[in-house]
Amino acid sequence: MQVYRGIPYLPGEVRAAVAIGNFDGVHLGHQALLRSLCSHAASHGEIPCALTFEPHSKEFFAPEKAPCRISTLRDKTDAIASCGIEKLFFAHFSGRMASLSAEQFVKEILVDRLHASFVTVGSNFTFGQDGKAGPDDLVRIGAKYGIEVSAKDLIVKDNENISSTRLRAALAAGDLKEAERLLGRPYCMSGRVVHGEHLGHTLGFPTLNLRPVPPGCHAQPALTGVFAVMVSGIVPGKELPGVTSLGNRPSIGGNLQFTCETNLLDWTGDAYGKLIRVRFVEKLRDNKRFSDLDELIAAIHNDAIRARRIFGLSIEAGGAPVA
C-alpha cells in the first residue's frame, strides 16, 4: 500500500474508488466498509483508496474536547492496508480544509485530485464548512460530477452499533475482551523504541518507550493504566511477556505528554530504534500517585508478580514500568 502525506494529483488515467473517514481504531465497521469498497473497485477497474484526516477535525477546532485516540498512525495504517486498500491519503486538516464548502471538497479533492468515480462513507459522515453536509449532500453533489456514492450503515453487534465511540468506552473501562470483539483482533500499540528519561532504569526497571500520540497532539490515548502485555519485534518470531504503563506517570511528577513504557519480564538488552508491537492482554490496575518511591517500587513488584501469574511464569525477581 502506498501512503501519502497530503492529497496528490493522481495521473489522469486513474479511476479511484475512495473510502472517506477518520477510521480511528479501524474496527469491524470500518473494515466492512473498506473491504466492500475494495470489492467494488476490483469489479469496476478502479484503484481502492482511503482518505483520512490528521489531525481529527475535533482536535483542530477544540483540542481540549477532542476524542481520545484509539490507534497510533502506524497501527491505523497497518489495519487499513490489511483490508486491501492500495493508496492511503493522510489529509492535513487545516483552516483551509475546514473552510471548503461541500461542493469545493468534492470538486477540488475528489474530482480534480483523486479522479474518484466511486466514494463510500459511513452513514454518519459529515463534511464541508462547519460539517454541515452529510451523505445525502455527497450523493447529490457527486452525481453532478459523475461520482457514484454509497453511504454504509453501521454494523450492529450485540444489538449495538459498532463505532469508535463504543470502542473508546470499552478501552476507557479497561475491557480488553470487548475491545477485541469490536476490533476483530487484539488491541495493540506499535512504534519504534525511543529514548525516555531513563527513570525506570534508575529505579531498577528499564523500559521500552513508545510515543502513543504524535508530538504536540492534545488527544490522549483511549487506553490508560498498567497492563500485562506481550511484545513482538524484539526476538524474531517470538512474543515476550511484560508489563506496560500507559499514561503520564503521576508518581514521577506527571506531565502532559503521554508515554507507553514497557518492562520485559525476562529480557534485557538494547532495543532502541526497533519497531515493536505491544499486545495488551489484561489490565492490572489504574495509574495512581504513590506517596513515595518505596511505595511505588512495591507496586511495581506486585504488578510484575501478577503479570507472571497471568502468563504462567515462575514468580521471581522482575519488574514493571514506572507508573
From TrEMBL:
Domain of life, per lineage: Bacteria
Broad EC category: transferase
Domain called Riboflavin kinase: residue spans: 182-312
EC number: 2.7.1.26, 2.7.7.2
Family, per entry: Belongs to the ribF family.
Record protein name field: Riboflavin biosynthesis protein
Keywords on record: ATP-binding, FAD, Flavoprotein, FMN, Kinase, Multifunctional enzyme, Nucleotide-binding, Nucleotidyltransferase, Transferase
Molecular-function GO terms, alphabetical: ATP binding; FMN adenylyltransferase activity; riboflavin kinase activity
